[in-house]
Amino acid sequence: MDSRRAIVVGAGIVGAACARELARAGYSVTVLDSRPPGCGTTAAGMGHVVIMDDSPAQFALTKLSRELWDQLDLPDYGERETRGTLWVAADSEEMDAVRSKHRAYSDQGVDAEILDEHQLAEAEPNLRPGLAGALRVAGDSVVYPPTVVEWLLNDANCDVQQVDVTEIDDNIVTANDGTTLTADVVVNAAGNYALGLLTEPLDIHVIPRKGHLVISERSAGFCNHQLIELGYLKTAHGNHGETNSESVAFNLQPRATGQMLLGSSRQFGKVDSVVDPGVLAKMVNRAMEYMPGIAKLQAVRTWTGFRGATRDNLPIIGPHPTQPHLYIACGHEGLGITTALGTARLIKQFVLKEEPDIDPAPYASARS
Amino acid sequence: MTSSRSDILVVGAGPAGLAAAVTAAETGCQVTLVDDNPHVGGQVWRAERETLPPRAAQWYARARQAKVHMVGGATVVYAPSPHELFAHSVDGAKKFQCEKLILATGAHERFLPFPGWTLPGVVGVGGLQALVKGGLPVVGKRVALVGTGPLLLAVGAFLMQRGAHVLCIAEQARRTRVLAFGASLAWHPRKLREAVKLKRATRPIPRQYSTWPLAIRARSQSLEIDLTRKPESAAAVTKTLECDLIGCGFGVVPDTVLARALGCDLNGEAVRVNDHQQTSIANVYCAGESNGIGGADLALVEGEVAALRACGQTIGRDLQKRLDRGRSFAQGLNDTYQLRDELRHLGQEDTIVCRCEDVPLEHLHPYGSFRDAKLKTRCGMGACQGRVCGGALAFLRGWAPDSVRPPYAPIPMEDFARMCADATT
What we know:
The structure holds 2 protein chains of 2 kinds.
Chain A: E1 5-9, H1 13-24, E2 28-33, H2 41-44, E3 48-49, H3 56-71, E4 85-89, H4 92-107, E5 113-116, H5 117-123, E6 133-137, E7 141-142, H6 145-156, E8 159-162, E9 165-169, E10 172-175, E11 180-182, E12 185-188, E13 207-218, E14 226-229, H7 231-235, E15 246-254, E16 259-267, H8 277-290, E17 298-309, E18 316-319, E19 326-330, H9 336-351
Parallel strand pairs in A: 1-2, 1-12, 2-8, 4-14, 12-19
Antiparallel strand pairs in A: 3-7, 4-6, 5-6, 9-10, 10-11, 13-16, 13-17, 14-15, 15-16, 18-19
Helix pairs in contact in A: 1-6, 1-9, 3-9
Chain B: E1 2-11, H1 15-26, E2 31-34, H2 54-65, E3 69-71, E4 74-81, E5 84-89, E6 92-103, E7 107-109, E8 122-124, H3 125-133, E9 142-148, H4 150-161, E10 165-171, H5 175-184, H6 189-201, E11 207-208, E12 211-218, E13 223-229, E14 237-243, E15 245-250, E16 252-254, H7 257-261, E17 266-267, E18 270-271, E19 284-286, H8 295-310, H9 317-336, E20 352-354, E21 359-360, H10 370-377, H11 387-397, E22 411-412, H12 413-422
Parallel strand pairs in B: 1-2, 1-6, 2-3, 6-19, 8-15, 9-10, 9-15, 10-11
Antiparallel strand pairs in B: 4-5, 5-6, 7-16, 12-13, 13-14, 17-18, 20-21
């Protein structure tokens, strides 16, 4: 018997993960993208696999996803390292946030421990003295997304084609040369471009949110965890829907190569990929406030990327409200690497009409 | 951070940059000339023990006379716009503001991957000359020079003069083509005189055409190189030489990093310019090897043309004629020493292409573009940011370089942050 056919539009990490889930469920999968796999927002991200607790729905999806990452048998070139995240608290107010975050994680069965000032200094000697403490989430990890995408697609043994898709009408996918492809199931995982491809638009919008990163030369041992200032929760995610907002937060990540990857910034209302010097200056200065030694690290390269954000900061995962063969998986903002696996699992469960691992209602495409 | 403002900023103080700076200054413009080397002269007129070669010294004297503001030892690492550039130097960050920008960023050597090309003692032929000028002793050392073009002869003559024993010059081009090019120099008397002089100086060096390296191996105290000669209508003959140093020079690649960062269009591997050295970006001019390989004399003419246009002057007929002649010479040069197809296949599966990140050729097979290969294999992601492997892959695969983002060379985070904070763009 011929297997059922699926088309996944978008060869970023979300598309690749969906392709793999559907292939494992017996579908014959074709993945379409105008660019080579993993070269868009996926390549621009930090590759942090992290549990976040902005909202219960975000917590559920990141937790499910992290469990799926743990089950994945990634090869070495995926550069996965489980060093854990340190949520760094600068003062006693942020230390209160550490304690409530600790309760939230523990209640959900996620291992987390509170570090006091001295334990933090011991864990990360290059942080400035006098910080209040941190929450260590030991199970968080980091991956190198472009090669992970390559592995996911190879593992799924799916057909990857470089096709510039211009329209998706239920299960009919049209390319820029006018040709059409059809399948039993279509997954729209085209990131920032996803909603623009629909013939039946959604009420919800995805807005690109620009980010900057800087990477250093190899400096192995300079830091040991993924470091994020707790203020991140206030600054980086605090401005939903404001079109001109701009924020930076300290976020440092040791890579498997020994390089230090430094973030992060968030800007709405920017569409060009040019490095914005003002934002970069603020971002590096913020990092140097937390970790003075960063000043002497050699900056090798900068880049920018665009995270697709929704107003409620949750991704869109699930069936299209009116087109029964079409499923949407986009709007993952800064958590696309982490949540790609959970997203793909939910999409598979929708397609196969299985009981979902978590309640998918908060991610429904029919919200606004 | 020091800051300076000028009518015209020239980046690169080789022949093109010197000529541009002097010409612009002599027409009355305020000119700043910046280079990452401490001395002027670029690669071709590199100083030796603080002493400039005579032609560089003359231009340097003129530049001083014309009050060109010369800044050495400063590498341009960020250009938010053509009117605002930041450089990094030992004495900190520097900011340059200008009305017009002239790029004279020159070229760097093209390396081709073949077994053994990364062994110690194997260097670029221009790099070898620079090392010797910097004090590397070569007296009595056995040297093999392989690759293509007149640079092999120039460096051969230089090394002989410094007491090296130059065992051979292996030129990949066909003898008939080189001879035909030699004959065409009758139209370029100055070039002909140089060629004759060079030929005389290198007479004792055995020269072989249609010859290229296959592999280099390390022996306990020396190197061993397999050279193959493939005459047009005969079977290839391979022989092995033992030597101490090997200079490889498969031509040079225009340095277009700054031009690309500013958004200038390319023409092949070089910056695209019009008849007056103007790039596709307003107020940005380009002269010398970065807009196409043509040697020092053409670079001088181009520098002059670029400067006159940048200063709003017209180009006289005589200068235009010199430019046209120089370009026709450059065309002949590039045609003659075009790399042959066989050189695309010298690398083995495990031959390293990207030295910074240790990427072998076999890892690149699945990819169709530099960006794709870079993201998946780290090729070109290291400290040199693809300057070395980029030239190889342009030839091997026809890959265009990936986009350029600041900093264009590694610099400390604090300096980079300072530059970014100071950028007005």
